[in-house]
Structures are given as C-alpha cells and as structure tokens.
Amino acid sequence: MLRRLYPHPYLSLFLVLTWFLLVNQWKLGSLVMAAFLATVIPLITAPYWPHRPRLNSLPALLSYVLLVVWDVIVANVQVAKIVLFMPRDRIQSAWIRVPIELKSPEAIALLAGTITMTPGTVTADMSSCGRVLLIHSLHAPDPDAIRDDIKSRYESRLKRIFE
C-alpha cells in the first residue's frame, strides 16, 4: 500500500526537503504542501519512470553531492577570475567530447546535470548511441585534462553509486 502511494520514496523525500528549503518556513501549511507535492509528483511521473534506480551506496551519493557543491564553489571563483581578469584573446573555449561508460539513464542524467551545474561548463548534447556527451568549456587550455577530470571525478563515482 505504501509503495503504491509513494512509488519513488527517495524522490518524495527529496521533494519534501526541497520544498522546505524553498519556503524557508517550518509551518503546518508548508508541511501540508510538501506532503502533497511528495505524493502527487511521484504518482504523476511513475508511468514514465517504471523502474526505480538502484543505489548501491547512499553514503557514496552523499559524498558525491558534497564534492559537487565544493566543485561549484571553486568553479565560481575560477570563472569570476577568468571573466574579470583574463584578456578575451587569452580565453580558450573548447568543445569537448566525453565518452561515457555509464549505463543507467539516471546516472547519465546526473552526470550531464553536474557538468552543466558547474560554472564554466555546460553539457550541450549527447550522441544518438548515448555513449558520448558533448561539453562546452569556457576556458580549456587542455581539453583532454578536462575530459579526464570529468571521467575520474564524476563518472567513476556515479558508477559506484548506480552500477
């Protein structure tokens, strides 16, 4: 019964936490709305998401989130320095192809989202076979190093979490 009402419990929990962070109020009305969203959104999206993603390690997922938060902070400082102090003719933007070994659609989406969320990089496209991401980097004097960093820093962790 509970599984039918909450087909994706992690999503429901995430929605409750996100709602409280957005409204920044611990009131009964906020709790009712959070519970409503945590129930309705997974029920509406369940037909489009028939299989729950398998998480092999919740602690690894939490450490991944902390790593991404840290990387976003560091990248903000780096991008600010590039934009404010680097002469335009020295900025070396580049398109980078990143071959991926991930098989889980959720892991691939999380990788693409992580890259986009990190200032200075954006996931622009994915190959039709689903094995290569096209990334644009604001400043990439060594595109291979950025590709290798994405694979070792993010993809390897996501493989441990999801596969």
TrEMBL record:
Its main location: membrane. One of its GO terms (molecular function) is monoatomic cation transmembrane transporter activity. NCBIfam families: PRK08965.1-2. It comes from the Bacteria. The keyword Cell membrane applies. GO terms for cellular component: plasma membrane. It is a multi-pass membrane protein. The chain crosses the membrane at residues 6-23, 30-49, 61-84. Belongs to the CPA3 antiporters (TC 2.A.63) subunit E family. It is found in: Cell membrane. Keywords: Cell membrane, Membrane, Transmembrane, Transmembrane helix. The keyword Cell membrane applies. This is Na+/H+ antiporter subunit E.
